[in-house]
User: What shape does this take?
Amino acid sequence: MSLHAFIRVYFQTRYVMIEEHSLQTLISISQHETFGPAVRALGFCTEHLLEMDDEQSRDFFAFLEADWGRRYPCEDKFEEEFEDESDEDLEMEEDDKEDFYDRVYRERLDDQKTLLLGHDIIYLTQAMMGLSNCKTLILTDARIPWGASRLKREVGSELSRGFHPDNVEDEQFVQRILQVMLSAVAKSELPIEKLDFYLGHVDEPKSVNPISLQLLDWPVYVSPIAWTLTSLTSLRLLISPFYKNNRAYG
Assistant: This one.
């Protein structure tokens, strides 16, 4: 692959998530003399961790595991007829693994909370100051950034991406992403021309539940409309049609 093709594939449109490692990587890209100027569009994906008690955690991860398993069956399942005394050791190992992933999950959740105290805007502003040729911002739940795949391996489970029916944090997090995007644009004075929303895709496993236009319904005092984007010339909304099982639609 030539350098031109490499840049076109991996940097021309760059997808990130609101997670420290992902944003730090974007800062590194923005400071690179070749890769920084190559970024023309910056996409923000909705993957995140949910705060749940133990019962919610078990139910949620069981739901994700079952849903993922229907589409990508696991070939390594143990069969009941092979159970014997050695299975106790296997169960202990599985318990240890579950405890490990639970601890890592909670650590990463704490990291997420700390980031959302305002560090996310600081990091993104710093990155945008080096992305002089970026003219398009995208908010989407239809792409999985590399950072999400890495975080998934660390915590041992799928990340939340769409709206989980019993958790309002999903909607609040997506609203936070939009706030971070536009705040960083204003602070960095990045001359954005296009703002694209691609949300609510029902082509699972890319989205758990569609995201609705309700996420744009903010109080006036925090509304991004109050932030002037004089360079903006295009606003595109691609939202899924009515989905009767989605909590956000009532």
Remarks:
- The chain has seven helices and five strands.
- Residues 87-128 form the longest helix (42 residues).
- The mean pLDDT is 76.
- The helical segments are 3-10, 20-30, 35-38, 54-71, 87-128, 146-155, 169-188.
